[in-house]
Amino acid sequence: MYACFKSAYFLAIKKTDGAAVLARKFVRKIVRLHGVPASIVSGRDPRFTSEFWRAFQGEMGTKVHLSTANHPQTDGQSERTIQTLEDLLRMCVLDWGGHWADHLSLVEFAYNNSFQASIGMTPF
């Protein structure tokens, strides 16, 4: 999530995807559009804390900040975004059927075109 713009990127990943797959998806979805971010706030998922991911970020010059439990600046915003994502995907699957991943691009578009009260506009 780009905190100052309140825009988010949603990637379909599997529990079995390793750090290398995640890094490749990250480059294809985010780096290609915006370049290398200066910093990333991440949860403590092993795929983000792995040796490979840290080396990858080191090579790109990005600082990784791991979230801590009960820390509102890192927990609340991400958790709220994830809850909204789950709600939107659930509605899409119930209304139109199919697999949640089929609707991910449309949900990302809808999320990023929704009014964000904290910045007084839509992210896009």
Automatic annotation (TrEMBL):
Coiled coil: none annotated. It comes from the Eukaryota. GO terms for molecular function: nucleic acid binding. SUPFAM superfamilies: Ribonuclease H-like. InterPro entries: Integrase_cat-core, Retrovirus_Pol_polyprotein, RNaseH-like_sf, RNaseH_sf. Residues 1-124 form the Integrase catalytic domain. GO terms for biological process: DNA integration. This is Integrase catalytic domain-containing protein. It comes from Microthlaspi erraticum.
